[in-house]
Amino acid sequence: MVHLSPGSNREPLGPSSNAVNITPLGASSGESVLKPESASAKRPHAAAADDSPEEIESDDDRLFFLTDSCDQIRTKINTFINNGGMKVGEFQRAIGVTASSYGNFMKKRGRDAGEQSSVYIAANAFFRKRELEGHKMPRKKAKKDTDADGKETGKNLDYEVSDIHLEGEDEGEVEIYDTCDEVRRKIAAHLRAPGITQAGFCRAISAQFPESEEKKISSAQLQAFQRKKGPTEGNSSGVFYSAYVFFEKLRVKQGKKKSKARLEMEEIWGDDGGVSRELQRGGYIVMKGSEVVQDRYGKVRQILQE
């Protein structure tokens, strides 16, 4: 390092290679200033090192903080595998567990169900390590339809249900076994999926009406339906019928079993041919000392007031 004092005539003994550049301000002034080299010039690899993710050792204490419940870990495992992070066998080997212990843990249900399992401990450490190293959960890429030339048609094949046919569909009379609130919940969840737009969803459910009806669902109609609350509020809307048909076809396509709530709805509404799509007009005739109530399934009944 060379230091120059004001007014000093001392010259450096030789060229300095590591710290100081002397840059003339002008040919006539004869003055010089010290211009230190930048930190990046001194350490050419420093910036790259700062941007690189931290590598976490497998025995790092932070990996064994149990911040997620058993159900949350199961959700992370399913998301990671379903979105292409690893295959099941690869994941089992990655966390060092057997297929049987993995299967026993994954079939449990409940916040604390499986807290003593080695799968819970190992999977928690696996995901903690990924998070600390800055790795994001993989996201599933939607399959796109292509034409004969290999160009994308814009259709999302994961949600293409045109090849599924339901009883009563040709007449526009598919029996409905979901409440309006349940259909609203399904719509909201579907619209949060990657690649799904409100306009695209409106086109998809419009296609569920018979060709003879030529109905089109608009975004305004969809939003109006979504704003309602109640098991039968919005039952006369075309959104209710067409969205139900779409999600029922999607359930069949995906090979999912009917939920417990769905089976209950079939038992309750089966004799009526499903949930009514008729707009309720007028009131109810009730006995003295009674009141009309609607249960969560949408059924209306009278009860005696206490």
What does the model show?
Helices cover 36% and strands 9% of the residues. The protein is globular, with a radius of gyration of 33 Å. The model is unreliable at 1-50 (pLDDT under 50). A hairpin with a 7-residue loop joins strand 1 and strand 2 (32-36). The protein has helices spanning 39-42, 46-51, 70-82, 88-95, 99-106, 118-132, 180-191, 198-206, 219-227, 238-254, 260-269, and strands spanning 20-24, 32-36, 144-146, 152-156, 290-294, 300-304. The chain has 306 residues and is of the alpha+beta class. It has a two-stranded antiparallel ribbon with strand order 1-2.
How are the SSEs ordered, and which strands pair?
Elements: E1 20-24, E2 32-36, H1 39-42, H2 46-51, H3 70-82, H4 88-95, H5 99-106, H6 118-132, E3 144-146, E4 152-156, H7 180-191, H8 198-206, H9 219-227, H10 238-254, H11 260-269, E5 290-294, E6 300-304
Antiparallel strand pairs: 1-2, 3-4, 5-6
Helix pairs in contact: 3-6, 7-10
